[in-house]
Amino acid sequence: MVAAVPDRADTGRVSRRVTSPVLIGRSAEVEAATTAIVSARAGRARFVLVSGDAGIGKTRLVSEVCGRARQAGMLTAVGGCVQTGDAAVAYAPLAEVLRDLLRQLRSATLTELMGPGAAEIRPLLGGEVADGASRGGSALFEHLLGLLVRLGEHRPALVVFEDLHWADPSTRDLVAFLARNLREAAVAIVLTYRSDELHRRHPLHGLLADVRRDPDLEAIALPGLGRADLSALVGEISDEALPAARVDELAARSGGNPFYVEELIAAGPSAGLPASLAEAILAPGEPACRADSRRAARGRRPGG
Ligand SMILES: Nc1ncnc2c1ncn2[C@@H]1O[C@H](COP(=O)(O)OP(=O)(O)OP(=O)(O)O)[C@@H](O)[C@H]1O
Ligand SMILES: [Mg+2]
User: Fold this and answer.
1) Residues 67-122: pLDDT tens digits?
2) Which residues of the chain have pLDDT under 50?
3) Which CATH superfamily hosts domain 27-221?
4) SS3 assignment, position 39
5) Mean pLDDT of the residues in the chain
6) Residue 125: what pLDDT?
7) Whether 144 contacts 159, CB under 8 Å
């Protein structure tokens, strides 16, 4: 399956593209996620869990699926967890989701949707809640539940929480609460996390167990791209056709990970591994902070 990416413009910096303008492969995953999400329009909330290694294509998949949800008339709002060292920012992805909603709805409409919870929810827009302040704060969670139900009545919606491996404790509590309590609402929730970040005692395990209790959960674990898709990806990224032996080499070195393929092609055939990539490959147990800064600088958001 090949689909256009609406918000991915060429940087214009160099003539060579480093990212494929089309989504390669993933047709089964896009289909499964879209079907689940769009079914929420009928008034029953759906959860979709997208996992996979760093760079495997979670954000790209979610971006495609957000586009399809919008085509189906849904509102989409995206928030991502951020890696902040020890000082986690409470509800960081929720604040981003609310700001995304504010960009798309009139302020008065959002206030109306917040209903009796407006006074509690509004401070989140300004990031004014210290971590722990509302832990287990069932009043706030109930208000957010009410907001989502009313949002779905206003217009069916897709809410994305990205990179939950970095979630602060309050966000984990909130998502667990929603997994248990969000039922009759025209809202789909997409959750993503890096499976290669989850060491045995990672705090996300408890939340994942809660989420997986949902019998309607659509769980999508993204593997590396197969040889044919990888070859198509290489064809999209490089200016000139590469010999089959080079494609084989890229397949072997990348394990089908699109981000690695991009890095290896950008580095050129004679180069060794880019430092960022060598670090990621040689230290798989380490947090994959490697080229995150480069990618953060690109400012990608799946909803965009
Ligand atoms: N199926 C695909 N077709 C074309 N390009 C892809 C595909 N999957 C991923 N890419 C590209 O590979 C790069 C990494 O993808 P993406 O950012 O979606 O990975 P990720 O799983 O979200 O990584 P992270 O865990 O670091 O957030 C991006 O430049 C993306 O555009
Ligand atoms: Mg991502």
Assistant:
1) 999 999 999 999 999 887 666 678 999 999 999 999 999 999 999 999 999 999 99
2) 1-17, 130-136, 282-300
3) P-loop containing nucleotide triphosphate hydrolases (3.40.50.300)
4) helix
5) 84
6) 86
7) no
Q: Helix or strand or coil: residue 46?
A: strand
Q: How far is the CA of 30 from the centre of ligand 2 (A)?
A: 16
Burial class (CB in 10 A: 0-12, 13-18, 19+), 59: buried
The answer to whether the pTM exceeds 0.90 is no
Can you give the pLDDT at residue 196?
94
Domain ranges of the chain: 27-221, 227-297
Residue 125: both structure tokens together? 């827009």
pLDDT, residue 155, reads: 98
The pLDDT assigned to 98 comes to: 96
Whether 125 and 131 have beta carbons less than 8 Å apart is answered as no
**Residue 36 · residue 65 · CB < 8 Å:** no
Residues having CB within 6 Å of any atom of ligand 1: 19-20, 23-26, 52, 54-60, 194, 233, 258-259, 262
Residue of 60, 164, 286, 301 to test ligand 1 pocket, by largest number of atoms within 8 Å of CB = 60
Q: Dig out the tokens for 134 from the structure.
A: 């509302």
* Distant-in-sequence, close-in-space partners of 46: CB < 8 Å, separation ≥ 6: 36, 37, 39, 40, 188, 189, 216, 218
pLDDT at 10: 34
Decide: 91 and 168 in contact? Cβ < 8 Å. Answer: yes
Cα distance between residue 261 and residue 24, in whole Å: 13
